[in-house]
Amino acid sequence: MKRFLFMAVALSFLGGVPASAQEVGKVGVDWIGNDIIVEAVKDPKVDGVVCHVAYFDRSIIDRLHKGNWFEDPSNSAISCSQSGPITIGDIDMGKGGEEVFKQGLSLIWKKQVVNRIYDKANNTLVYLSHSRQVQNGSAKMAISTIPLYGQQVTWSKDKKE
Length: 161
What we know:
The protein has helices at about 1-15, 60-65; strands at about 20-30, 35-40, 45-55, 75-90, 100-105, 110-120, 125-130, 140-145, 155. By secondary structure, the chain is mainly β. The protein has two helices and nine strands; from the N terminus they run αβββαββββββ. The chain has one domain (about 1-155). The strands form two sheets. A five-stranded mixed β-sheet has the order 1-2-3-4-9, with no helix packed on it. Strand 7 and strand 8 form a beta hairpin.
């Protein structure tokens, strides 16, 4: 709830729209209220794929004690799986892929991002979770893959080779 309120306040300043993720789990990790949140994220251009992203949510007590009030850590984990028949829409087939999901980890600058990359040579969808920071970037990342080999996959547009 506090994360939602925090995001609502931050978004009201930025004029943004909340990320399309559904909280499916919340695990308390200590007595001061720090939590690990698990959210389900559906790929908007690939039906039949769901990613579960986990991240750390700092408590008010932790924020007061350590300072840095408006920022959560960059750490995240991701696991993606096939949740039904796969239908692939008009996805970016370039090496950089495209952003599937984004949410704020700080009041303004730091974002948690999930990118989808299509690995043509191995016929696999690769999902990369990382944080985006304005300065110094972040080397904290995680990947998950959905192999398409041997699967009944429908391409809504012609598959680009």
